[in-house]
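Lay summary. Proteins are chains of building blocks that fold into shapes, and those shapes determine what they do. In this project we predict the shape from the chain. Here is one chain we studied, written as its sequence of building blocks.
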Amino acid sequence: MIKIKKSLFYCLMLMALTACHDKQQTENTSIELAQLISAKVDEESNKDTQQDIGVNYYGLEQNLQRYSILTQINHKNVQQLKPTWVLSLGDNRGQQTQPLVINGVMYVTTHNATYAVDAMTGRQLWKSKIQYPAETLTCCGITNRGATWFEGVLYRVTLDNHIQAIDPKDGVVIWQKLAADIQEGYSMTSAPLIANGTMITGVAGGEFGARGFLDGWNPKTGDHLWRFYTVPEPGKKGNESWQGDEWKHGGGPTWLIGSYDKELDLVYWGVGNKAPWNMSMEAGDNLYTESVLALRPTTGELVWHYQFSPNDGFDYDGVNDPILADIMIDGKLRNVMMQANRNGFFYVLDRTNGELLKANQFVDKVNWADGIDMKTGRPILSQRVKDMIKTGQTTEIWPSAFGGKNLAPMSYSPLTGLAYANTFNVGWNYTPVKQEYKKGVFYIGAKMEWVLPDEPKGYLRAIHPLTGKAKWEFPTTVPMNGGTLVTKGNIVFSGAQTGELYALNAETGEKLWEFRTGSGIIAPPVTYQLNGKQYIAVVSGIGGVYNNLSNDPDLGNINPGGAIWVFELGTGTDTSTIHAKTIRLPKSNNIKDVFDDKAAWSDSVKHGAELYEQTCSHCHGIGMKTSGSNFDLRTFPKTDKSRFMDSVINGKGSMPAWGNKLSVEEVNDIFEYVIH
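And here is the predicted shape, written in a compact code that computers can read:
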């Protein structure tokens, strides 16, 4: 604790000096800080510590900073990292899990299994399989993001909305509770949060019009304690921000984990998109979608909220990680919550009361809003968005639904005072449409087409929280979407969707080391220390929303396959794999673009196209254009109708069954569109 306070003191000194000196003096101060960091790293790494340090929480700590005090691996020796062990997970789905390391055992989750692994040797101790119904739906990838540990018990959620308490000795389920009905479009993918003795879980499903909520549970017994709906019903505060019965299917999912301040006894949790997405000038704010909530963990009482994007039409969500830190602002140390929102603005709030302190653009291009009104806290809508709302015309919007930053968790270093985030450089052509609600199918109310630059499509940025400006940036052809880890050893680790695990200098952004894993990385790295040896761990396995939806040609050659990779220091030599640019697949003669003259389509093809976008596009790509590992329907044989019908109606492998949501005639129309 003393060491962390000293680091914070150095950081605060830098902020004060930076505010008072001219450019040259600021540059000198940055050099001095880099020298100070280097000296501190040498001092810490030379200490012969045998203390075991595990990974007890999602985010490393409940403030979600993803900052480690370990220094054995540092910017001077990281090039010596070598693989220690690799364990296959036997799963081709996207791997977004963050391992826990408790008492020398690593616990890892996939969508259909929980694993216990010896964290030093990689030997699997046990594996507990999960079965869920074929009709289970997810919006944006079949996955699980990790487990939670509390007083000797392991907790996780399942895709079909069960919470499990698991005995860590053998993987046996102690108790299991159901949170929501899969028929409504709900699913659960993220680790629970335990705060003040209460376990809190969220739900996905906003794209299906599922009304979001948070639940409080007794972790010992599984008893349900409370529920907070993110879309208020009539008679509840906030319902006046909805029109008529819109609230019943208003969205507001809570699918990423929140953070917890033990001293204030407040949980901070982000709330996602409204449903449907399309905007209107007459619509209200649609509370509490696109917001962050501050709740009492034992009761679910709402203490304060802040809404990032009222009446949002672009799926900007508000679920990105709410990081807690103490930062000097205008000469005063403030307890803050910071978030790099998908809408392209970096927010800093007073976490005691929700006061907006800073809101600045942190990506290159934002055209949906002209800024944030600091008096009201509301975005200033751009003229192009106002015109789009009036006319309904297709409009190019930046950032896209992938956001300025997607779900990949960022990290924050109290030593450098910087936030490290994987950011996106992707726009979209967006068309609002009217859509009727239908249970269990996409309820979006929009059509879209991505605007992908040649490269870079993303940057890992070191962001000043108070300005949104990047001190440095590391460009990548494909946006990284796995998350970052920053250490006291002056290193930022992050994995790429093209398979590389990178180590960068946290102060300068210099690439120090890279290693190519067997698949793309969409999971956050962690670090731990056992018997005096520090390890770096990350789960590899391509999948997820960008891979499924983007049609990024640079991902076509990245193969699926989940595995845990663990690294330790070697001796002397640089172990980096040879850097190689991504290789695009040759264009196949078997894949033809959808026929563009839509006026010539039959009624069944037109209807099938509409149904496809609502039921199939989130896995098989918009317009059947997918860069990912899911089946490319543009190659489906026209003569195999019976196989298509059976697979869609009854499900196949991890593909959900649609027979209870679509009629035989509707499935037939989708087939006609697919083979058109």
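What the prediction tells us: The radius of gyration is 24 Å.
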